[in-house]
Structures are given as C-alpha cells and as structure tokens.
C-alpha cells in the first residue's frame, strides 16, 4: 500500500516537472501544447475513493496553473477529468477480475482497453481546457483544431510512455 | 437534517465535483486582466524561484545569439548619440537638450518563462517591485513591442504578452500616420493584425507599423512589424491587415521595461478633464 502511495507521488513529481519545464515550452505552428500531466490522474488505482480522486485532480491542476499563470484554467479542466474518470471506466467496461491494487495502465489492462480509455479522457480534458481558455464560440474552428492537434500529441505521448513501460517489465 | 446529511453522503462525489469546479471558475473569473494580487504574489515567489533556477541552465545555450543582439543594439545606439552627428547647427543641439525633459527610462530584465502556443500567453520576468517595476509598464525588445506588466511581486513580474486575446494596442502606419488597433487573432505567433484603418487609405505590403503613443503604456514610435497582406471584408469600410511581428516571441531573452516618468502628470491632467 505504501509502495503504491510512493509510486504515485513520484509519478506526480515526474509528470508535473515534465509538463512545466519541457512540454509547456514546446510549440508547433502555435497550436500544439500536449498535456502529459493528466497521465497522473489516468493511472491512479481503480480502487481510489471518489473524493480523493477529485482532490488530487484539483491539486494537480492548481500546481500546473501556478506555473503557467493561468489561474483556475487547469483546475477546472482537471477536476472535470477526475469526475469523468469513473464514468469512462464504466463505459469502456470494467474487467471483473481486476486486482484490488490494480491501476488502469496499458500493462495491466492491455492496449485494447487502454486506448479508448485514454482517448476519451484526453479529449474531455483538452476540450474543456481549450474552450475555457478561449471562453467563446467565436473562434470555434480554430479552437477545435487546437483540441485535436494537442489531443493527438498528448495521446501519442501517453501511449509511448505506457508502451515503453510495458516492454521494460516483460523482460 | 438527517435527510440532508444522507443526501450529502449519497451524492458527495457529485457535490465535491461541483464545489471544486466552482472554485476553479472563481479563480478564472478573478484572474481577468488584473490578477488578484495576494494569491498571485505568493505563487509568483514560488514559481519564480523555480523558473529562475531552471533558466540559468538554458542561459548558456543562447549566449552567442544574445551577444549578437546586444552588439547590434549597441551599434544602433552609437549611431543615435550626438557624437555621431555632424554638428552643422550648434544651436539646435542646445535647444534640443534643454527642451527635451527625460520622459522614459528603461529597466533591463530577463525573460524566465514564456509561451506562444496558448490563446492567452504570458511572460515572466526576473525583476519586480524591488527593481522599480510597476503595473501597466510597457515591455519591449530592440526589435519591437512585447507586452504589458500585469502583476508584480518583490522579485518577479508577469507580463501579458502581445500574443493574448486581451491585447489592444494603439498603433499606426508610419508613412501616413493612420491610426489603428493592434490585436492578435491567435493563430500564428509571428503574425498580428492591425484593424480600424479606413479602406480609402493607400497602403502597401512591407509598410512599417509603429506604436502611436496614444495610450499611457507604450511610448510613440516603437517598431511593431511590417505589413504582410491586407484586405477589406465585404460590407466593411476598414482594412484587416495581417502583419509580421518584428519580434520573434518564441525566442525572447532580454527585454526592456519602460518607465514613464510623466505618467502621473498625464493621468492627473486627464482626470481633471473627466471630472468636469
């Protein structure tokens, strides 16, 4: 149990610093900003309490906001992400035999399960984030483009990270 | 009461979600333009220190380019000093010196955090209140305008980049003095838009756009960019003019914060007119 808490704290530090120091500085035609830090929320164990999930989402968003000077923006999007996570897990389908300490990672659940799970949540998060940022439907085409470009890059990042991890463990 | 409690326990997940989400939106609402000073200052101090440490690393990588920009600017400043002019009319120099009271001073600062890929971008500088920076000061580089200071702490300041939805800077076309508004439409970080220029005015690609100095933030005549293209939307009487920014916002390093020494006087003067 303690091992799991430690693991998640390390993940938090890793993903948040990756986000703040590296990914927030990347840009690509001015549209791209991948948000790898949500992988922390995605990988929290299945059995986590609802309130803890929400609070962790809130805290993560707050830290990212502090570094990006976007007060509330990532908070709103990440809390929504945390709220939707159980819904998406139900939608994608729980496996009846998952362990007590199991986490929704590619290694434990397989690509077929993990891909739609990550895809849906990444889209929800990026959609919320970009629309709250622009806060109008005036530039809707441009905002959609942002959502799609950023989502596909975030998803690629997440899948790559998960794939490398699963290959490493199999050896 | 018991029912209420049961309700709260039953739906605690949803209620907590609403509460946290509401908190997020309160933060967003309060952050519009003038950030809440107290919250911002604490987080500025923390994030500023972290960014400062990280930035020292990346400093070394851009030394060559920075040197180049500095020497370019030195050369231009040398050209501008009175020493490099032929003194044909000594009188005019004396007159100039006594009439022109110093109005603007410049504070050099370093960019320690910057973004160009959001709809609303901000820049963090390594100087703050201690170094004489105040809210609403203009930020420029040798190549053009950068933004406006919106929030300060003791040692750091946040600048609202020109690459922001809220940017509205008064600019004009240098060759015919036509006034317009500089905005950023959010697509490409190297292209801004000048609007409100009447359609009868003659303009051409490559014309220079400078600041008009009609706001209390940017001094007049600072380079903004050059016209890339222009069109008139159907049924409109004004140009939409996309232009190339003079500054590469993706590679900002050292900037100047402009302090307007006469700002108070000008503001007071305007207030007397408003009161009447």
3D structure, described in words:
The complex is a heterodimer of chains A (171) and B (276). Chain A has one domain. Chain A has 171 residues and is mainly α. Chain A is globular and about 45 Å long. In chain A, helix 1 (2-22) packs parallel to helix 3 and helix 3 (50-68) packs antiparallel against helix 4. Chain A has helices at 2-22, 38-42, 50-68, 73-92, 106-109, 111-134, 140-170. The relative contact order of chain A is 0.13. The longest helix of chain A is centred in the C-terminal third of the chain and has 31 residues, at 140-170. Chain B is α+β, with helices and mostly antiparallel strands. Chain B folds into two domains: 37-164 and 252-261, Rod shape-determining protein MreC, domain 1 (Thrombin, subunit H, Beta Barrel); 169-248, Rod shape-determining protein MreC, domain 2 (Thrombin, subunit H), CATH 2.40.10.350. Helix content of chain B is 34%, strand content 28%. Chain B has six helices and 13 strands. Chain B has a six-stranded antiparallel barrel. In chain B, a hairpin with a 4-residue loop joins strand 4 and strand 5 (157-161). Residues 33-38 and 86-98 of chain B have low confidence and may be disordered. The A-B interface holds A 21, 24-33, 50-51, 54-55, 57-58, 61, 65-73, 75-76, 79-80, 82-83, 86, 130, 132-134, 139, 142-143, 146 and B 12-13, 16-17, 20-21, 23-31, 35-36, 39-40, 43, 46-47, 50-51, 54, 113-120, 122, 124, 158, 165, 185-189, 250.
């Amino acid at each position: 149990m303690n091992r799991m808490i430690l693991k998640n704290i390390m993940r938090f530090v890793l993903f948040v610093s990756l986000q703040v120091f590296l990914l927030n500085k990347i840009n690509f035609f001015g549209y791209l900003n991948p948000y790898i830090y949500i992988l922390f929320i995605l990988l929290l164990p299945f059995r986590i309490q609802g309130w803890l999930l929400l609070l962790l989402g809130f805290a993560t968003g707050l830290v990212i906001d502090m570094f990006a000077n976007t007060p509330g923006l990532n908070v709103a999007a990440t809390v929504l992400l945390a709220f939707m996570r159980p819904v998406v897990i139900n939608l994608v389908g729980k496996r009846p035999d998952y362990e007590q300490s199991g986490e929704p990672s590619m290694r434990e659940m397989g690509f077929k399960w993990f891909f739609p799970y990550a895809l849906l949540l990444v889209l929800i998060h990026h959609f919320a984030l970009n629309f709250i940022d622009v806060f109008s439907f005036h530039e809707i085409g441009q905002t959609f483009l942002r959502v799609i470009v950023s989502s596909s890059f975030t998803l690629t990042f997440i899948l790559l990270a998960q794939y490398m991890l699963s290959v490493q463990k199999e050896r | 009461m018991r029912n209420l409690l049961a309700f709260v326990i039953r739906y605690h997940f949803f209620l907590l979600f609403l509460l946290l989400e509401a908190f997020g939106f309160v933060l967003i609402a309060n952050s519009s333009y003038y950030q809440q000073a107290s919250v911002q200052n604490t987080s500025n101090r923390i994030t500023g220190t972290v960014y400062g440490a990280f930035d020292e690393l990346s400093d070394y990588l851009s030394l060559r380019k920075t040197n180049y920009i500095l020497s370019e600017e030195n050369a231009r400043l040398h050209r501008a000093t009175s020493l490099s002019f032929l003194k044909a009319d000594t009188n005019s120099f004396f007159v100039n010196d006594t009439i022109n009271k110093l109005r603007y001073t410049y504070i050099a600062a370093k960019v320690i955090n910057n973004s160009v890929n959001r709809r609303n971008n901000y820049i963090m500088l390594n100087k703050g209140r201690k170094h004489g920076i105040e809210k609403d000061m203009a930020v420029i580089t040798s190549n053009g305008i950068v933004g406006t200071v919106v929030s300060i702490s003791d040692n750091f300041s946040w600048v609202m980049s020109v690459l922001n939805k809220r940017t509205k800077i008064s600019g004009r076309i240098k060759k015919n003095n036509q006034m317009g508004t500089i905005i950023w439409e959010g697509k490409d970080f190297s292209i801004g838009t000048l609007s409100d220029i009447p359609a009868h005015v003659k303009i051409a690609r490559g014309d220079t756009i400078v600041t008009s100095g009609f706001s209390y933030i940017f001094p007049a005549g600072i380079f903004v960019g050059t016209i890339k293209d222009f069109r008139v939307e159907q049924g409109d009487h004004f140009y939409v003019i996309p232009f190339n920014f003079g500054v590469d916002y993706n590679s900002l390093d050292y900037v100047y914060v402009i302090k307007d020494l006469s700002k108070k006087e000008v503001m007071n003067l305007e207030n007397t007119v408003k009161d009447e």
